[in-house]
Design goal:
heterotetramer; A mainly alpha; B mainly alpha; C alpha/beta; D alpha/beta; B: mainly alpha; two-stranded antiparallel sheet; two-stranded antiparallel ribbon; 14 helices; 4 strands; 3% strand; disordered N terminus; D: alpha/beta; 6-stranded mixed beta sheet; binds adenosine-5'-triphosphate; binds magnesium ion; transmembrane helix (chain A); ABC_transp_permease (chain A)
Chain lengths: 343, 333, 307, 523
C-alpha cells in the first residue's frame, strides 16, 4: 500500500477515479456503455474521444517540456491545420472524394511540419527563449488561420473528413484510435529507441550533453516539429468534429490544458525526466473535469472556481512535501532541502 | 574581518570596471525602441508627436505596473500566470464595493489586500509544497477568474466621483502635453521596483535565487522570504494594476484582461530578462512595455489592416524585435 | 498595407476611425467586411483597428484616432461599461462618435451621437415567443412538460446575458416551459457540441435546445445526431444569428427557428456618419433591420444570403 | 579490527567549539553516516579524511543544517543546536564552502562574496563599498580579477577561490572548507594556507577536507578519519605517517604509488604520421597559436598556472569551442571540428574540468550517464541492446570501482569522486584514440587517484594517446611522455619528459619573464 501511494502516478489516477465516481453518483447512467448503431456510446466514450486532441497536443508538449522548452503556439497551429484542410476540401469540386480528403490531410500536416520547423529554428538556431519564440506563432498563427479561411467559419461536407474526429471504426471512435496510435508511436520512439534518453539528457544539462556528443540542437529542433505535428493532427480532429474550421476558436487555450496535463502527469517544467503515461492520465483528467462541470450541473459562473480547487488539490496531493506535511509532523528526512540544479 | 584601507591594486581594479554584459539586452531593447520610433515618424504623419509617446505611458500604465511585479517573479526563476485574472478580480472588487457605497480608500485597501493575499498564498504553496509555479499560478488564475464571476457576470460601471476624477484627470506637462495620474502612479511603482530590485539586499537575493536556488540556500540566504515575497509583490502589483485598469476603463468586468499575463511576460522577456531567472533589469521591462505599446500604435496608425493582418503584423513585429535583440546580444566571445 | 500618407487634400472627404471588437466569429467578420465595403462605396476613408476582444486595446485605438484627427469615430464596444473617459476626450476634440452593434452604459448620452444595432433582449424574446406560440407542439416527447436546455454564449458577454433575459421573460407565458440546464458553449461549435453531449447524457427527455447563436446550435446538431436522434424532430432547436450555415441547417429541417441578428451594418453606418459629420441631427437609436426565419422562410431566403 | 595507530587520548585542553555525537544519516539505500562522533577545537585546523563516498561531505552538511539528522546531537560552543538550514548555522558562526562550488554564476564576483551581507548606506546597497570590500578579500587571496565581473566568465578554479572568499568575509568562529584546493595550483594553495594560518591564530576553528595528503600534513593539527560512513579514529597529525593514514582511510594496504614506470621520452618514432597534428591553433582572447603533435600511445602532460589556457587548448582540440585559426590533422587528414561530435567522430574524447556544469547529467542514472556518449555516437535509432548495456555498465563500474555499484543510482546522489569515475568511464566506453583529460583527478581520493593514474598509464601502453591536464605538477610529470608548459594563454615550452624536467624546473620556466598569473596580453 505504501509503495502504491509513493508511485508517481498514484494521485493523478486516484483523482481521475474520484472524479469519475462523482459523475457516476450524480448521473447513474454515467458509467454505462452501450452499443448503438454499431458503435460504442456513453459518457466514458465521450470523455475519451474529447480528450484525444488535448492528449495529442500534450504528447508533443511533453517532449518539448522535457528539453526545457515550452510551445505556446500549438493552439494556433491546430487552427491552421483545420483551416488548411477545410479550405482545401471546401474549394475542391468533389468535396466528398477520398483523394480530396487525403490531399487535405497531407497539406495540413505539411504546413504544420513547416511551422514546427520554424519554431524549432527560432529556439535552437537563433536561440530565442522558447516562450517568446512560440508566442510569435501563437499570435501570428491565428491571423494566418483567419487569412486562410478569410475570417469565416469554413464548413465542409465530407463524410471521410468527419471520420477523423467523429467517426467510428470497429465500434471505437477514430479519434481515440488516432490518439492512442500517436501515443504508442511516441512511446516506442521515446522508450524503445534512445531518443527519450537523449531528450532527457538535453533537458537536464544541455552543455554536458553537447560535450557528450549529443546533437542537442537537432534534438531540440525535432521536438518542436513533433509538437507541431501533434498539434496539427489535433487541429484536424477538432475541425472534423464539427465539420468546420473555426480559425478563432479551434484549439483556443489548448496550450494551457496541454501543459496542465503534462504537469499533472508528473513531468517537471524544468525539463528532464518525462512520463508519457503521466501525460495520458493528465489529459484524461482534464477532459473528465471539463465534462463533469456541465454534467453535475455546476452553474457557468462557478466552473472556474471548481477547476481551480480541483487543480490545487491534485497538485498538493502530488507534492511530496505537502504529503509529508500532511502525514506527520516528524522532522525532515535526510533529503536535500533543495534540488541542486546545473548552472 | 573588516575591510582595510583600499590598496592601490583595488582602486585600479575599480577604475578598470566596465559595465558588464548583462546591461546589453536592455541597451538593445532601448536602442530598438528609438529605432522603431524613428521609422514610425518617417512613415506616418503625426507619429512623431510627443503626445503619441506620452500616450504610450497613458495607455500602458497598468501593464507597466504588472510588468514590474512580473519582473520580480521571473528574476527569481518563477512565473505568475494569475496576474491577468487578478487584474480582472481587482476591477470587480473595486466596482462592486464602490457600487455598494464604500469610500474609495476602503475600496483601494480591499483590492490591494485581496491581491496581495492571493499572491502570498500562491507563493506559500510554491515554496512550501514544492508545487511548480506554472501550476500554482494557473490555479490562482482560475480561482481569481471564478471569483469574478461569483461577484457578477455582468460588467459593473464605476461612477464614484473620486475615482472618476482620478481617471479623467490630467497631469499637464510643459508644451501643452499631458499624462494621466495613472502614469504618475506607474512611474512611482517603477521607481520603487527598481530601487528594491537593484539596491536592496532583498533584490540581490531575488537574483541569487533566480541564478541558483540551491546555491542561494547553501549560502544561507533567505530563500523562503524571497520566493514567497516575489509572488506577494506580484500580487500587490497586479492588484494595483487592477485599480489602474479599473480607472482606465471605469468599470469592473469578469472578462477584463484575458491573456494580459502573456503581455506582461512578453514585456519582461523582450526587455531582456531571462525567463529562467537571474538576469534582467526593471528598466528592460519598461522598454518591453513600450515596445509592445509601439507595435499597437504602429498598427492603429496604419489603419488599413484587417483583423488577421493585425494579428500577423503583431507576430512579425514581435519576431523582428526578439531576433534583432538576440543578434545584438549574442555573446561576442 | 496601403502606405499612402494621410492626406486632407480634399476637404470634403471623410475619414472614419472604426474600432472593431475583433474577429471572434463569422458574424463579426461579416460585420467587418460590410463596414469596409460600405466605406469604399461611400467614399469614406476608413481607419480600421481590431481590438482582439480587449477593451483596453479599443480604448487605445480610439485614443490614437483622436490623435490622428479623424472626422468621425465608430466602434462596437467590447463591453458596455467604462467608455466615459475616452469618449470625453473625443468630445473635447470635437470628434463625433457612433456606436454600432453594442451599447455603452453611460449616463451621459451626449458622449455619442447614435447607436446603431440590434436589441439582444428582443432577440431572446422573439425566440421565446416562438416557443410559447408552438405550445404543445414543442413538447416533442409528449410528457406534458417542455424541457429546454440552453447553450449560453460566453459567460458575462452582453449578448449572452440579454438573450437569456429576453428568452426567460417570454417563456413565462407558458408555465410548462422550463429550462432544465444552462451552460456556456462559448459561442463556438465545438463548445456547443461538447456541452450538448453531456446534456444528452445527464438530462432525460430534452424537448428543445435554445442556443445563443447559430454556431453552438450547429454543434448541438452534431451531438444530437451522434446520439442517434434527429435534430429538428426528436429535439427542437432555436438559435439566433442566421448566418449561412445556420440557414442551411434550418432549410434542411435540422433547426426549427432562427432569429436574425444582422451583421450588415455598413451602409447604414456610412449614412449615419455622413449626416453626423455634416452636422445633421440623427436619431439616438437606430435599429438594424432584422427578421425571423422558420424552415419555410429559410428555403426561400437562403439563395439570397450573402454571408 | 586492529589499528595501526591508536586514537589520540581525548584530553582536549580547550572545550570543543563543535561537538557532534552519534550522528547517523541514511539515504535511500545508503547508510551515509553511522554513529559518527566528531569534535572541532577552537584555533585548530582539523582535517576530515576518507575515501570518496566515505561521508565527509555528508557530515559537513549534517553539521550545517543542509541535511536533517536521523540520530545524534550537535553542540556548538557547548549549546545543543539543530540547524534547520544553512542560514541557521551561519547565524551561529559557522561559515562553509561546500564541495561543489555553490555560487550564483549569474551574479558578479563581489555580489557572490557579499550576498546577504552587502554594505549599506541609507538603506541602499553601497556599490562602491561593496567593490572595495570584495577587492580587499580578493587581495587576501591574491586574486587579480575585477570584482564587478560576472562569475560565469571565470573558470572553475577562480570560482572556487571566490567561494572561499565569501566564507572568509563571514566573521565566523568555525570555517569549513570541503575540498577547497581541488582545483587550485600550488601557488594559490600557498596563499590559501597563509590565510588559514592567520585565522587559526585568531582562534578560528577550521575544518578542512582534501585528498592531497601533502597538504593535509602541511596544514592540519589534527585529523578525523571516516570510512564507509563510520568513524575510524581521531589523530593528532604528527602522530601518524602518510602511509598509516592511507591505510586507515582505505582499510587495507595501498598499492604503492610510485610503481609507475618512468617513461622513456625518446621512443617517439618521429618518422611516423602523428595521430593528431595541430598547427597554429588559436582563438581570439583565449589562446595564442599553439603547435602540437601527438603520437599513438603518447601521454602529453600540460602544465601551467590558473588561467594559462590549458582548458582552452583542450576545448579547441575537441571542438567544444571553435578555433579562429589553425588546423588539426588526424592521422594525416585535415579535420575541422565545429562541434564535439566532429571530434568524437575522429575518436577524440574530452573529460571536462567542470564536472557539474559540463559533465554529469544529474537526474539520469549512473548507467545512462555511463552510456551517454556511446549512445549519442550510435545515433538515436540504434539503442544499445539491453545485454550489451548491462555488460558494459557492470564491467566499467567494476573496473573503476564506482560506488555505490548500483547502475540505477541517480548520478546526483553520487559523491564527487565517484561522479568523476563515471565520466571517465563514459569516455573509455567509446574506445577513443585520443583522450583529453582536464583535471581528471580533481577531488578524487588517493586510492582512486592511483587507480586513475594507473589506468592512464595502462591505456597509453595499449596504444591510446592521452592529453593530461592537471594542477598537480608531480602527477603530470609522473605520467607524461612529453610536457607542454603554458603561460598567459600561450605555449612556452614543449619538451620530452626526461630527467631535466622537474617540478622546480617547470615552475622556473613559468616564473621566468615576470609574474605569470597577472599578465593579461589582451587586456
Ligand atoms: N543526496 C543524496 N542522496 C542519496 N545518497 C547520497 C546523497 N548524498 C550523498 N549520498 C551518498 O552518501 C555517501 C557519502 O557521500 P559524501 O558525499 O558524504 O562522500 P564524501 O566523503 O564527501 O566523498 P568525496 O570525497 O567523493 O566528496 C555516498 O555513498 C553517496 O553516494
Ligand atoms: N588569475 C586570473 N585572473 C584573471 N583571469 C583569469 C585568471 N585565471 C584564469 N582567468 C581566466 O581564465 C581564462 C583561461 O583559462 P583556462 O580555463 O583556459 O585556463 P586553465 O589553464 O585551464 O586554468 P584552470 O586551472 O582554471 O583550468 C581566461 O580567459 C581568464 O578569463
Ligand atoms: Mg565530498
Ligand atoms: Mg582548466
Amino acid at each position: 500500500m505504501r509503495d502504491l501511494v509513493r508511485r508517481p502516478l498514484f494521485w493523478p489516477v486516484l483523482a481521475l477515479v474520484l472524479l469519475l465516481a462523482l459523475n457516476a453518483v450524480v448521473t447513474p447512467a454515467f458509467l454505462s456503455v452501450r452499443i448503438q448503431d454499431g458503435h460504442l456510446y456513453g459518457s466514458l466514450i465521450d470523455i475519451l474521444r474529447n480528450s484525444a486532441p488535448v492528449l495529442l497536443v500534450a504528447l508533443g508538449m511533453t517532449l518539448v517540456i522535457a528539453t526545457r522548452g515550452i510551445d505556446l503556439s500549438v493552439g494556433a497551429v491546430a487552427a491552421i491545420a483545420g483551416a488548411a484542410a477545410c479550405v482545401h476540401i471546401a474549394g475542391s469540386p468533389q468535396q466528398a472524394a477520398t483523394s480530396t480528403l487525403l490531399t487535405a490531410v497531407a497539406i495540413a500536416v505539411g504546413v504544420c511540419l513547416l511551422l514546427g520547423l520554424w519554431n524549432g529554428f527560432l529556439v535552437s538556431v537563433i536561440g530565442i527563449q522558447p516562450i517568446i519564440a512560440t508566442l510569435v506563432l501563437m499570435t501570428a498563427g491565428r491571423g494566418l488561420a483567419m487569412l486562410i479561411t478569410d475570417g469565416q467559419i469554413t464548413t465542409v461536407v465530407s463524410p471521410g473528413f468527419k471520420v477523423i474526429g467523429a467517426g467510428f471504426v470497429a465500434t471505437l471512435p477514430v479519434a481515440i484510435l488516432i490518439a492512442l496510435a500517436v501515443f504508442a508511436l511516441t512511446a516506442v520512439l521515446a522508450r524503445r529507441t534512445a531518443l527519450g534518453l537523449l531528450i532527457e539528457s538535453v533537458g537536464i544539462n544541455p552543455e554536458a550533453s553537447r560535450l557528450a556528443g549529443i546533437r542537442a540542437r537537432t534534438i531540440t529542433w525535432t521536438v518542436y516539429v513533433f509538437s507541431a505535428f501533434c498539434a496539427g493532427v489535433a487541429g484536424l480532429m477538432i475541425a472534423s468534429n464539427t465539420s468546420a474550421a473555426d480559425a478563432n476558436n479551434a484549439g483556443l487555450w489548448i496550450e494551457l490544458d496541454a501543459i496542465l496535463a503534462v504537469v499533472i502527469g508528473g513531468t517537471s517544467l524544468a525539463g528532464g525526466k518525462f512520463s508519457l503515461t503521466g501525460t495520458l492520465v493528465g489529459a484524461m483528467f482534464i477532459q473528465t473535469l471539463a465534462t463533469t462541470i456541465p454534467t453535475i450541473g455546476i452553474p457557468a459562473e462557478a466552473n472556474y472556481l471548481f477547476k481551480a480547487v480541483v487543480v490545487i488539490v491534485v497538485c498538493l496531493l502530488q507534492s511530496p512535501k505537502a504529503r509529508a506535511a500532511l502525514r506527520s509532523r516528524r522532522p525532515r528526512r535526510a533529503t536535500p532541502t533543495v534540488r541542486t540544479e546545473t548552472a | 574581518m573588516s575591510a582595510p584601507a583600499l590598496s592601490p591594486a583595488v582602486t585600479a581594479r575599480i577604475r578598470r570596471y566596465s559595465p558588464p554584459r548583462r546591461y546589453l539586452p536592455v541597451t538593445a531593447a532601448v536602442a530598438l525602441l528609438i529605432g522603431i520610433f524613428g521609422a514610425g515618424s518617417l512613415r506616418y504623419q503625426g507619429f512623431a508627436d510627443p503626445q503619441v509617446i506620452l500616450n504610450l505611458f497613458v495607455d500602458n500604465a497598468f501593464l507597466l505596473v504588472l510588468g514590474v511585479g512580473m519582473t520580480f517573479v521571473i528574476l527569481a526563476g518563477g512565473i505568475d500566470l494569475s496576474v491577468g485574472s487578478v487584474v480582472a478580480l481587482s476591477t470587480m472588487i473595486a466596482a462592486s464595493t464602490l457600487e455598494a457605497g464604500w469610500p474609495v480608500a476602503a475600496t483601494v485597501i480591499a483590492v490591494l489586500v485581496a491581491g496581495t493575499l492571493l499572491g502570498t498564498l500562491m507563493g506559500l504553496v510554491i515554496h512550501y509544497f514544492d508545487v511548480q509555479p506554472f501550476i500554482a499560478t494557473l490555479a490562482g488564475m482560475f480561482l481569481a477568474r471564478g471569483l469574478c464571476y461569483l461577484i457578477s457576470v455582468e460588467s459593473i460601471p464605476i461612477r464614484d466621483p473620486g475615482l472618476t476624477r482620478f481617471a479623467q484627470g490630467t497631469v499637464p506637462l510643459p508644451g501643452g502635453y499631458h499624462v494621466t495620474p495613472s502614469v504618475v502612479v506607474a512611474l512611482v511603482v517603477f521607481a520603487i521596483g527598481a530601487w528594491v530590485l537593484h539596491l536592496t539586499r532583498f533584490g540581490r537575493t531575488v537574483y541569487a535565487v533566480g541564478g541558483s536556488e540551491s546555491s542561494a540556500h547553501l549560502m544561507g540566504l533567505r530563500v523562503a522570504l524571497v520566493k514567497v515575497g516575489v509572488y506577494t509583490i506580484s500580487g500587490l502589483c497586479s492588484a494595483l494594476a487592477g485599480l489602474l485598469f479599473a480607472a482606465y476603463t471605469l468599470s469592473g468586468y469578469s472578462l477584463h484582461a484575458v491573456g494580459m499575463e502573456l503581455d506582461a511576460i512578453a514585456a519582461v522577456v523582450i526587455g531582456g530578462t531571462l525567463l529562467t531567472g537571474g538576469r534582467g533589469l526593471v528598466l528592460g521591462t519598461m522598454a518591453g512595455v513600450l515596445l509592445l505599446g509601439t507595435i499597437q500604435t504602429f498598427i492603429s496608425f496604419d489603419g488599413t489592416l484587417s483583423s488577421w493582418w493585425t494579428k500577423i503584423s503583431i507576430g512579425v513585429l514581435l519576431l523582428i524585435f526578439v531576433v534583432i535583440q538576440r543578434l545584438l546580444t549574442r555573446r561576442q566571445t | 498595407g496601403d502606405d499612402k500618407p494621410e492626406s486632407k487634400a480634399a476637404s470634403d472627404s471623410i475619414t472614419m476611425g472604426f474600432a472593431q471588437v475583433g474577429a471572434e466569429s463569422g458574424w463579426r467578420t461579416a460585420n467587418t467586411k460590410s463596414v469596409q465595403e460600405a466605406a469604399k462605396t461611400a467614399g469614406i476613408e476608413l481607419k480600421f483597428s481590431d481590438a482582439q476582444q480587449k477593451q483596453e486595446n479599443q480604448i487605445k485605438s480610439i485614443r490614437s484616432f483622436i490623435q490622428q484627427k479623424v472626422d468621425v469615430i465608430a466602434f462596437s464596444p467590447v463591453v458596455e461599461t467604462g467608455w466615459d473617459t475616452v469618449l470625453m476626450e473625443a468630445k473635447r476634440a470635437n470628434i463625433p462618435v457612433i456606436l454600432t452593434d453594442r451599447a455603452v452604459d453611460s449616463k451621459d448620452t451626449t458622449l455619442y451621437k447614435s447607436f446603431l444595432g440590434s436589441d439582444f433582449v428582443v432577440e431572446g424574446k422573439k425566440a421565446g415567443e416562438w416557443l410559447v406560440k408552438q405550445g404543445d407542439a414543442a413538447d416533442v416527447n409528449h410528457d406534458g412538460s417542455i424541457k429546454v436546455v440552453e447553450l449560453q454564449g460566453t459567460t458575462g458577454a452582453a449578448p449572452a446575458i440579454d438573450r437569456k433575459e429576453g428568452f426567460e421573460e417570454a417563456m413565462k407565458a407558458n408555465p410548462k416551459i422550463a429550462i432544465a440546464a444552462s451552460q456556456t458553449g462559448d459561442f463556438t461549435r465545438d463548445g456547443g457540441k461538447k456541452v450538448m453531449e453531456s446534456f444528452l447524457k445527464s438530462q432525460k427527455d430534452i424537448d428543445v435546445v435554445f442556443a445563443h447563436n447559430d454556431d453552438m446550435g450547429l454543434g448541438a446538431i452534431e451531438a444530437i445526431e451522434a446520439a442517434g436522434l434527429k435534430p429538428g424532430k426528436d429535439v427542437q432547436i432555436i438559435t439566433i444569428d442566421a448566418v449561412k450555415d445556420g440557414m442551411t441547417a434550418l432549410a434542411d429541417g435540422k433547426i426549427n427557428y432562427i432569429v436574425e441578428c444582422n451583421p450588415l451594418l455598413g451602409p447604414q453606418l456610412m449614412g449615419l456618419a455622413k449626416k453626423v459629420v455634416a452636422g445633421e441631427e440623427v436619431p439616438a437609436r437606430v435599429l438594424t433591420e432584422e427578421t425571423v426565419f422558420d424552415q419555410a422562410a429559410a428555403k426561400t431566403a437562403l439563395s439570397a444570403r450573402q454571408y | 579490527m586492529t589499528q595501526a595507530i591508536t586514537p589520540a587520548p581525548s584530553t582536549a585542553l580547550t572545550p570543543p567549539v563543535v561537538e557532534m555525537r552519534g550522528i547517523s544519516i541514511g539515504f535511500p539505500g545508503v547508510k551515509a553516516l553511522q554513529q559518527v562522533d566528531f569534535r572541532l577545537l577552537p584555533g585548530e585546523i582539523h582535517a576530515l579524511m576518507g575515501e570518496n563516498g566515505a561521508g565527509k561531505s555528508t557530515l559537513i552538511k549534517a553539521l550545517t543544517g543542509v541535511y536533517a539528522i536521523d540520530e545524534g546531537t550537535v553542540a556548538v560552543a557547548g549549546a545543543e543546536h539543530l540547524f534547520g538550514s544553512p542560514a541557521d548555522s551561519q547565524a551561529a558562526g559557522i561559515s562553509t564552502v561546500y564541495q561543489e562550488v555553490n555560487l550564483c554564476t549569474n551574479l558578479t564576483v563581489a555580489e557572490n562574496m557579499l550576498l546577504g551581507r552587502e554594505p549599506r548606506r541609507f538603506g541602499r546597497i553601497d556599490g562602491l563599498a561593496m567593490k572595495a570590500r570584495a577587492g580587499s578579500i580578493l587581495d587576501r587571496l591574491g586574486l587579480a580579477i575585477d570584482p564587478g565581473s560576472t562569475l560565469a566568465d571565470h573558470p572553475i578554479a577562480i570560482q572556487q577561490l571566490v567561494a572561499i572568499g565569501r566564507a572568509l568575509d563571514l566573521d565566523a568562529r568555525v570555517l569549513i572548507l570541503d575540498e577547497p584546493t581541488s582545483s587550485l595550483d600550488a601557488d594559490e594553495v600557498a596563499k590559501l594556507f597563509a590565510v588559514m594560518r592567520t585565522l587559526r591564530g585568531q582562534g578560528v576553528a577550521i575544518l578542512f577536507v582534501s585528498h592531497f595528503l601533502d597538504q593535509v600534513f602541511e596544514i592540519s593539527d589534527r585529523m578525523t578519519v571516516l570510512r564507509n560512513g563510520k568513524l575510524v579514529g581521531e589523530y593528532p597529525t604528527g602522530s601518524v605517517s602518510q602511509l598509516e593514514l592511507v591505510e586507515a582511510m582505505i582499510g587495507r594496504e595501498l598499492e604503492t604509488l610510485d610503481k609507475l614506470e618512468q617513461h622513456a621520452a625518446a621512443d617517439v618514432p618521429q618518422d611516423r604520421v602523428p595521430l593528431v597534428k595541430v598547427l597554429g591553433l588559436s582563438r581570439r582572447g583565449s589562446l595564442q597559436a599553439v603547435d602540437l603533435e601527438i603520437y599513438d600511445g603518447q601521454v602529453i602532460g600540460i602544465a601551467g598556472l590558473l588561467g594559462s589556457g590549458r582548458t582552452e587548448l583542450a576545448r579547441l582540440l575537441f571542438g567544444a569551442d571553435t578555433a579562429d585559426t589553425g588546423s588539426i590533422d588526424v592521422r594525416g587528414t585535415r579535420r575541422r571540428f565545429r562541434t564535439p561530435r566532429n571530434a568524437i567522430g575522429a575518436r577524440i574524447a574530452f573529460s571536462s574540468e567542470d564536472r557539474r556544469a559540463e559533465g554529469v547529467v544529474e537526474d539520469l542514472t549512473v548507467a545512462d550517464n555511463l552510456l551517454l556518449t556511446l549512445q549519442a555516437s550510435r545515433g538515436w535509432l540504434r539503442p544499445i541492446p539491453v545485454r550489451t548495456r548491462e555488460r558494459l555498465v557492470a564491467e566499467y563500474i567494476k573496473a573503476l570501482d564506482i560506488r555505490p555499484p548500483d547502475p540505477a543510482a541517480l548520478m546526483r546522489n553520487l559523491s564527487g569522486g565517484n561522479q568523476q569515475k563515471v565520466l571517465l568511464a563514459r569516455w573509455l566506453i567509446t574506445e577513443p584514440e585520443l583522450l583529453i583529460l582536464d583535471e581528471p583527478t580533481r577531488g578524487i581520493d588517493i586510492g582512486a587517484k592511483t587507480q586513475i593514474q594507473q589506468l592512464v598509464a595502462k591505456l597509453a601502453a595499449d596504444g591510446l594517446s592521452v592529453v593530461f591536464i592537471s594542477a598537480e605538477l608531480e602527477e603530470v610529470l609522473r605520467l607524461s611522455h612529453r610536457v607542454l608548459v603554458m603561460r598567459d594563454r600561450a605555449k612556452i615550452a614543449d619538451r620530452p619528459n626526461d630527467d631535466t624536467v622537474t617540478v622546480a624546473a617547470i615552475l622556473e620556466l613559468i616564473a621566468a619573464g615576470g609574474p605569470a598569473a597577472e599578465g593579461n596580453p589582451d587586456a
